[in-house]
Amino acid sequence: MVTLADPCRKGPVRPPITSLDSGGGAEREHDMGPVVITGGFGRVGSLVRPALLTAHRLRVVDRVTGDTLPGEESLVADLAVPGVAEQALAGASGVIHLAGDPRPHATWEEVHRANVGLTRRVLDAAAEQGVPRVVLASTVHAMGEYNRPRHRPVDPAWEPRPCCAYGLSKVIVESLGRLHAELTGASVVGLRLGSTGYALDEARYLGMWLSERDAGPLMLAALTAGPGWSVHFGMSANTRRHWDLSSARKLGYEPRDDSEPYAATAGPPTAVICRIFDGEDNPRA
Length: 285
Ligand SMILES: NC(=O)c1ccc[n+]([C@@H]2O[C@H](COP(=O)([O-])OP(=O)(O)OC[C@H]3O[C@@H](n4cnc5c(N)ncnc54)[C@H](O)[C@@H]3O)[C@@H](O)[C@H]2O)c1
Fold this sequence. Notes:
The protein is of the alpha/beta class and 285 residues long.
C-alpha cells in the first residue's frame, strides 16, 4: 500500500478508495460506515456535528471528552499516539480532520507537531484503512499575506502565502492532502476556514466570518467532492467578504448568513494576532 510514510513504494491502492464513483449519495455513505470527525469536541467540531448527523453517522475522536448526540459514537484518545489513528479510522466512510492547534500566534514547534505531524499520522491511517473521503481543516492564514486591499478578492488557486507559522503549517497540511489524493485516489478537500465559533466583536473579522449555520453545510458539501484534491475558502456570504467562494459553491455550498448586521456593534482590534491584518488595521503595522 502507498502512504505518505513511504510515497515511493509501489503497490495497489486499497479497493474502498476506488469505490468513490459509485454515486451512492448520503444514504449509501450512511450504510458504509461512520464519518470520523477528529477534534470533534472542539469549537468547530461542536458547531458542525448536528448538520453532519443529518446525512452521516459520526465517530467523534478527541483527546478530551464531550457529550455525544444520537447517531454518534466516540473515541477519547490522543491521535498522536502510534496506532490510535488506525483504530479511529477503521471502517470509516470519511474523515473530517479538525484536531490540531488553531492558534495563529503559536510557535513553529507547536504547530509543526500538532498540525503537520498529526495530519500526516491521520492521512497514513486513512490510506491504510482505505478511507475514501478526507476533509482537512485549513485556514485563511494559509493565504494571510493576501489579506491586503490590493489583492481583493483573493482567489483560492493563487500560490499560498502564509502570514504566520500557523498558516505555514496549514500550507503543509494542504500539500500533504494533495499528495495523499495523488497517491491513493481518495477525495481530499482542504477548507480554508474563516473565523468560526467566536463572538463577532471586532470589525476586522466581518469579512472572514463563518457562521454556525453555514459551517455544517460547508463540511457536508466537502464530503460530496469527487476524487482528487481541491482547496476552497470557507466563509459566510458576508457583504465585506474578499475571499472568493466560487469554488466552494461548485461543491454545493450555499452560504446563508452575512456578518453585516454585526457591523454596527463590532469594534476596533484589541490585539495583534499575527501578520494577517498588517497594512489594514494592525496596531503594529
Ligand atoms: N475556529 C476557527 O475560527 C478556525 C478557523 C480556521 C481554521 N480552524 C481549524 O479548524 C480546526 C478546529 O479548530 P477549533 O477552533 O475547533 O479548535 P479547538 O482547539 O477548539 O478544537 C480542536 C480539538 O482537537 C482536539 N485535539 C487536538 N489535538 C489532538 C490529538 N492529538 N488527539 C486528539 N484530539 C486532539 C482538541 O482536544 C480539541 O477538542 C483546527 O484545525 C483549526 O486550525 C479553525
